[in-house]
Each structure stands twice: as C-alpha cells, then as structure tokens.
Specification:
Layout (H helix, E strand, L loop, with lengths): L2 H15 L6 H17 L4 H15 L2 H4 L4 H17 L13 E6 L6 H16 L3 E6 L6 H12 L2 E3 L7 H15 L3 E6 L7 H14 L3 E7 L5 H12 L4 E5 L8 H10 L3 E5 L7 E3 L2 H8 L5 H12 L1 H12 L5 H13 L3 H6 L14 H12 L3 H5 L6 H11 L3 H23 L16 H8 L1
Parallel strand pairs: 1-4, 1-5, 2-3, 2-4, 5-6, 6-7
Antiparallel strand pairs: 7-8
C-alpha cells in the first residue's frame, strides 16, 4: 500500500532528519521532492498545490526555527498537514435507523458487491446488527449469484427476486421484507453506472427515495488515482452522498485517490477495504493513514488487529514478553500464525515503522512450514531460551527437521530481529498515534525499580 510514495518520502526525509539547521535551500529542495512525489502518485493537482503551500507557510515560521530538531519538525508539519488533507478525524458510520439502511453505489468494477458483504459483516460484528443484503444489481451478469455466495460466506441473509429486471421494485419489496422479518440493518448493492449516464443516475436517485437510506456510500476503487475525484463529484451532484468507501486500498501503490478525494470533494472517507477477505474492512483514520504514507507505520491499527485474533490479554502478554526479553520460540511461532490471521504478512508489514520490519520480512508460506519443523525439533528448554542453542545443537536441530544449519541460523536471526522490532514499537516516536505509551502500563517490577 502506497509503496512508491512512501519510498520517495522516506528518501527525502532521511536527508532532513540529521540536519541541525534547515536552510531555505533545504526547505525548497524538500518541498520540491514532496510535490513531485505527490504528482507522480497521481494526486489531484489542486490538492498537491494546497498541501505544499500549507507546509511551506508553517515550515518558514518560528515553529521550525525555534525547534531543537528542525529537520524532524518539518517532517512533523508534513504529517500534520497530510492528516488535514486526508480528512482530519475519522467519521463513523451512522448506525441508528429502523431499519438502518445503507445504499452502495459507484462505477462498474469498483468493488461494490464485495464491499456490500464486507459492510454487512462489519455491522454484525462491530455493532451487533442483524443485516439483510439486497441484490439490486440487475445489470451485471451473475451479480446476484455473487452476492448470494458472499452472503453465505459472511453468514448474512440475501434478499433477491428471481427474474426481476426492475431494481426499484426489488428495493421496495426488500424494505418491506426487512421490516416484517425483524432485520435491523439493510445493505443495498446497486448496479455500476457512469456518473454521466443521466438515465441510470435518475434510477439511483429513485432507489434512494424508496429506501430512504441513512448512509449513501460511494464505493471508489483506490487504484483509479485522481480520477476518483471526478467520480465522486459526479455522483454527489445527483445523489446526496454521505461518505466514501475506498476499495482495493491494499493494491494501491501510489495513493492518489486516498489523498485527493476528501479535500477535493468535501466528502469524507469512512471505510477502506484492505484485502480480499470479508473481514478486511476498516474505519478510515486520517492520522494513521498519514503515518503509513510517510513510512512511519500504523502501530495502533496493528495492535487492534492483533487483539481481534488473540484477545487484548494475549496481545498485551506478547508485547510485554518481547519488551522484557522473555519471548520464547513457542510464542514466536504462535505470533507468526496470528500474523497470517491478521490479513497476511504483507498487510502487517505495511503497518510497521520502516526500521521495524526486518524480523518477518520475506517469510513465505513454505518458509513458515520449515519454521514450524525447526521449532518442533528443539527441546522445550531450547524453545524457552534460544541462547542455549550452540553449534552442535544447531546441527542436531537441522537434522531433526530435515533442513540445514543455515536455515536454523536464519530462524534464530529472525527471532532476534522480532524481539528488537517489539522493543522499537514499545519505544514509540514523536508522531501522534505511533507510540505504545499509555497502551501498556508499567509492570509491578518496573514500578518498584523506579521507586528505588
């Protein structure tokens, strides 16, 4: 996610970080690189100009000149202004209504049908709703069948009318069915349409008039870049859009849509799709996204994902163990499994600060299987205390697991890197939302040590 943009920013800011004084020439050079990086990432030109100008005004003032670390202060300003561009604060879904009704719309191929199932699952898991999916996309072949299949995977009922060609009639009947059957949330999947197609846009407005949805969500493919701005403006002219869902964000290496759409249209991004799994839907946090774009990671989301698969107590236990250097290889193996359950290693890596990624980078499914075999070939004492594993023990473990000493060495190095990674995460940074201070209270032993 945003790989190209993040690399460009990282190179630019690395040059600034070590400077004791930021000269006007340094600032001009950095802002030129920021501007070029944003334009190459297909960010809307107007948004780029506004963002760079705000950064320039703040960076020229006393805010930087009086700072002890001017280079880092400039980076902090870039982060702060990028947060404003992305929307400043997360905007939650409206969850009140009888029934709560959400209508999804957008271009064909934007990911509406999959997003509809994700939204229904989100409402059930996070808000305890009993949702009903409505198959009102009657134009695309197999769209109804696709929604039924997704509904089965999500454990959500789907309303459909076999042979119907009138989406307005389907919506009207679905709303009656939802009220009479006790559903407290309705998610309507509509057909893809161009914002310039007057007939289809009028049809969409008519469906909205029938359903009276509390949320009219525009689904935008994140990989469309700044074209997302034109799409959002076109739909907003015909239908009162209440929020945007960015789909396929995990496949967007540039970031143009995510950075452009909120400031350029005035519409807030409410949700983002970050993978193919139906659970891969998240609330959009501008501050966290800005940190990820700037290569600073997203520790808070990482912790939330960890808690979703392990529970708060287990996630806290793992971090405490790593910080106190008491993490064993059994814990390490368990955490690798958890990482896969959190959406895959690539997604997890994207949420880690750049320097904290080396511990698990490059770990493939095949290597995961070898890792399991190597750890299972160790004695309980060796798994608890890897420092016991000398050269002769490494040869024995390699023979027992059918691997090589080099493979055992790589595992032990990866384990040590992971411990260092957790120490880095526990230390925090100067960017809001990037530290774990306050999330982990000091242990009793550490409190006693401070008192002494």
């Amino acid at each position: 996610m945003f790989e190209i943009l993040t690399e460009r920013f990282s190179r630019t800011f690395t040059r600034l970080k070590g400077k004791g004084r930021v000269t006007p020439a340094d600032l001009r050079s950095a802002l030129r690189e920021v501007r070029l990086a944003l334009l190459d990432a297909d960010v809307n030109v107007g948004v780029v100009n506004s963002l760079v100008e705000r950064i320039r005004k703040r960076a020229r003032g006393a805010e930087v000149s009086r700072s002890l670390t001017p280079g880092q202060q400039v980076i902090k300003i870039v982060h702060s202004e990028l947060v404003k561009t992305l929307g400043e604060e997360p905007v939650p879904l409206t969850v009140k209504g009888s029934p709560l009704t959400l209508m999804l719309m957008g271009l064909q191929g934007s990911g509406k049908t999959t997003t509809a199932a994700k939204v229904a699952l989100h409402l059930r898991e996070k808000y305890g709703k009993r949702p009903l999916l409505v198959a009102a996309d009657l134009q695309r072949p197999a769209a109804v069948e696709q929604l039924v299949t997704l509904g089965q995977r999500a454990g959500v009922d789907v309303y459909r009318e076999t042979g119907s060609s009138n989406p307005k009639r389907v919506v009207r009947a679905a709303m009656r069915h939802a009220r009479s059957s006790g559903y407290d949330a309705v998610v309507i999947d509509t057909a893809g349409r161009l914002q310039i197609d007057r007939r289809l846009m009028n049809e969409l407005a008519a469906m909205a008039e029938i359903a009276r949805p509390q949320e009219r969500l525009l689904v935008v493919d994140a990989m469309t870049g700044q074209d997302a701005v034109n799409v959002a403006r076109g739909f907003a002219e015909r239908v009162d859009v209440t929020g945007i869902v960015l789909s396929k964000l995990d496949g967007d290496a540039r970031g143009g849509a995510a950075i452009s759409v909120s400031e350029a249209t005035g519409q807030k991004v409410k949700l983002v799709g970050e993978g193919e799994e139906l659970s891969a839907l998240a609330v959009f946090h501008p501050d966290r996204m800005a940190s990820r774009i700037l290569g600073m990671g997203d520790v808070l989301t990482l912790i939330e994902k960890a808690e979703s698969v392990t529970g708060p107590g287990d996630a806290d236990k793992f971090v405490r163990g790593a910080v106190n250097q008491s993490l064993g290889l059994d814990d390490f193996l368990e955490q690798l499994h958890n990482l896969r359950r959190m959406g895959g290693l690539n997604q997890v890596l994207a949420m880690m600060p750049g320097g904290a990624r080396s511990g698990i980078a490059g770990l493939s499914d095949d290597e995961m299987s070898r890792t399991v075999g190597i750890i299972h070939s160790m004695t309980p004492e060796e798994r608890r205390n890897p420092k016991l594993i000398t050269g002769s023990r490494r040869r024995r473990i390699a023979n027992g697991s059918g691997t090589t000493v080099a493979a055992v060495n790589r595992l032990l190095k990866r384990f040590a890197d992971t411990q260092r990674m957790m120490n880095m995460l526990s230390g925090g940074t100067n960017i809001p939302g990037m530290g774990m201070e306050g999330l982990l209270q000091p242990t009793r032993s550490r409190r006693r040590r401070r008192k002494r």
